[in-house]
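Note to self: keep these together.
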Amino acid sequence: MSNRPVSRATYEDVLTAPDDKIAEIAAGELYLTPRPAARHARIASALTSDLHDAFDHGRSGPGGWWVLFEPELHLDGNVLVPDIAAWRRSRMASLPDAAWFDIPPDWVCEILSASTEVFDRRRKLPLYAAAGIPHLWIVDPEAQRLEAYSGDRGGWVRSGTFAGAATISAEPFDAIAIALGRLWA
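Structure:
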């Protein structure tokens, strides 16, 4: 991971970051990470597609969600960009007319890479828990594994680990089956 700690980073630091980096502020420090590589982007696209059709559009599932790729979250002074996030429409009736969201999502997903795994697991996950996000998925392309977590008193409890070509149903999207093998193709 490429990072540049800055004493009490500001949003101006995010705005002036290089275009080829994702800029985030975690616990007052600016972190710059590379844009996702093709494999990472493909996994994010495939998973977003499954969830968007079923939960955002309600075509092959219950609907009732906003599912977004790389939204910018402003949570308790942190600026975080998960790979995918989703909000129940019952909590956020319409999308804000802004470049970021200050309402914590109901679910976030981080797709690990060698350059982001430590930052994702050690910095971002505790901040997501502190913001009260109830569901989190971690996708590990190298291990071909999806870890599902539920929020619990400011921390995380693993609710399932799924690997390989398994077809899964995991909260909060357990109304549909997701073929993991399709993600690794």
